[in-house]
Design brief:
523 residues; alpha/beta; Immunoglobulin-like; TIM Barrel; 6-stranded parallel β-sheet; 12 helices; 26% strand; globular
């Protein structure tokens, strides 16, 4: 099945498009930053995408060893703090140009009121036995960071209180009243240390989200608290079906997800004192489980392109969960392609979704077109760039041809350069499958998988002559007619393409004849 679309873009009207693709990215628990493979994956992500912030779980979990206790000769227990691992982690982030988006959690076991834990790494998810001790831990940690990195620098790091307290696994009994107590005490402790800190919550996910957002703001109003922002999460698959180590999940309708996000905006704006308050999506992905094979596919990449084109409409930021597959919520994965959340598979292999983020990061200029399958930007120098995608919630063998027309300089030639990601050109998952799905990769296999995990770069110089129709895997073609340039993009199912269209500025060397080199005319 082939579908064709045509867009006439006059370029005179700027379209609404808030691109915050690089604001923040997620990272499992932050203690994983002490691993070499983690750092290699994060370095790759920063080189190609360059996120501004990073958010992870487990700041106060036992593996970070921050909260300690000792007993005096009289038998009295006192608290002390160990920032050795914290410094190593934060130093590594700063070396890569990252600021933390600090999530305050989980509970140190020695401070916890109960023994409930979550995940392979035993995150304690109970309230503190002593709220004064919790607030002292929070303020001591922030004070240490300020002393190490500077007051003004650390005060600019956003702070989120806990993670998904509306889910009983993440907060004992999903006790709303107890979470509100945690938020209030933490909020006041942080602001007392330095009022410049920006503090938000409630970091809810899914279950009764509208009720929690409204109740949270009602509580804040009652207590005279003004959060600096509201946080929530956003996942877009149905309930998974489990088989072996994997959970197979179908994508949900994107429009229902966008409508759900709009409800959060509407609820906040219904409170006059909180109207316009920032919303930060501190986690988003398609599936909410770390063993969903969908995450490794081109289908995921195309669906995320649609998400990235619209998540900025009502949200200040949206943080992809996660940058890499060093991740242990359900234990250490058995294979490199295990359906992990990450943009990068273990072994340093970029997944197709990695390039969706690269493409959106490379958008520049003002938006002159935004639709359900393409964003086009006017770069302001006579050239254009954009991202187009062919997404779907299920495979229907749909190919998409996108034709569009843009203003051009009369008689000018243009260079059309495309970077194509589809199931034929950038699909390490298929190569891994064809290799026999090895669980332990050899260096040769890793090298091949990395080679297969890069977009196909194609180019065409287009002018007043009728362009040859695209052949093979060439993604685009076009012609110039008068003051219009017409472009055609060919997208197979689940394809994503980044394109640039720039005026050609001839700068050839004396005597060089490309047509003669190609033997297309006699010398």
């Amino acid at each position: 099945m082939k579908e064709s679309k045509f867009y006439k873009i006059d370029g005179t009207e700027e379209k609404a498009f808030r691109n915050r693709v690089d604001y923040c990215v997620g990272t499992g628990r932050i203690g994983l930053a002490l691993q070499a493979e983690y750092q290699k994956q994060l370095k790759l992500v920063q080189e190609e995408i360059g996120f501004q912030h990073i958010r992870g779980h487990g700041l106060f979990s036992d593996d970070m060893a921050i909260y300690q206790e000792y007993e005096t000769a009289s038998g009295e227990k006192n608290a002390e703090y160990n920032f050795t691992y914290l410094d190593l982690v934060m130093d590594s982030y700063r070396e890569l140009g990252l600021r933390p988006f600090l999530e305050l959690g989980f509970m140190p076991s020695r401070m916890a009121s109960g023994g409930q834990t979550l995940f392979y790494w035993k995150a304690n998810t109970t309230p503190p036995a002593d709220y004064d001790a919790w607030c002292a831990l929070v303020t001591a940690t922030l004070k240490h960071l300020m002393e190490r990195y500077g007051d003004g620098e650390v005060a600019a790091w956003p702070i989120e209180v806990w993670n998904e307290p509306n889910l009983p696994g993440f907060w004992k009994d999903a006790d709303m009243e107890e979470y509100f107590k945690l938020f209030e005490r933490t909020f006041h402790a942080v602001k007392a240390l330095d009022p410049r800190f920006r503090v938000g919550g409630p970091a809810i996910c899914g279950v009764r989200d509208e009720f929690w957002i409204r109740s949270f703001l009602e509580f804040c109003r009652k207590e005279g608290i003004t959060p600096d922002f509201v946080t929530r999460h956003h996942y877009t698959t149905e309930f998974p079906e489990n088989q072996g180590h994997y959970g197979y999940a179908a994508l949900s309708d994107a429009e229902s997800g966008f409508a759900n996000l709009q409800t959060t905006r509407d609820i906040i704006d219904s409170f006059p004192e909180y109207k316009g308050m920032e919303i930060h999506i501190t986690e988003f992905n398609t599936s909410y489980i770390p063993n969903c094979p969908l995450h490794d596919t081109n289908q995921n990449a195309a669906y995320l392109a649609l998400q990235l084109s619209r998540l900025g409409d009502v949200n200040e930021s949206y943080s992809y969960w996660t940058f890499g597959d060093i991740f242990e919520e359900q234990g250490v994965p058995f294979t490199p392609f295990h359906g992990g959340f990450g943009l990068v598979a273990n072994g340093g292999i970029p997944k197709p979704a990695f390039w969706t983020f690269v493409f959106f990061k490379n958008l520049e200029g003002k938006c002159i077109h935004r639709s359900g399958d393409m964003v086009v930007m006017d770069k302001g120098d006579g050239g254009y760039c954009g991202v187009a995608w062919n997404s779907g919630t299920e495979r229907v063998d749909r190919e998409l041809e996108i034709n569009f027309e843009l203003p051009a300089e009369d008689g000018r030639e243009y260079a059309l350069i495309t970077r194509l990601v589809d199931e034929d050109t950038c699909n390490p998952l298929r190569l891994w499958h064809d290799m026999g799905e090895p669980s332990s990769l050899t260096e040769k296999q890793k090298k091949l998988l990395k080679e297969s995990a890069r977009p196909l770069v194609s180019s065409r110089r287009i002018g007043t002559q009728q362009a040859v129709e695209p052949q093979g895997t060439l993604a685009g073609s076009g012609t110039v007619t008068g003051r219009k340039v017409q472009v055609s993009l060919q997208l197979k199912e689940f394809a994503v393409v980044f394109f640039e269209l720039d005026p050609v500025l001839p700068a050839g060397d004396r005597g060089y004849d490309y047509e003669r080199v190609m033997q297309r005319k006699n010398g």
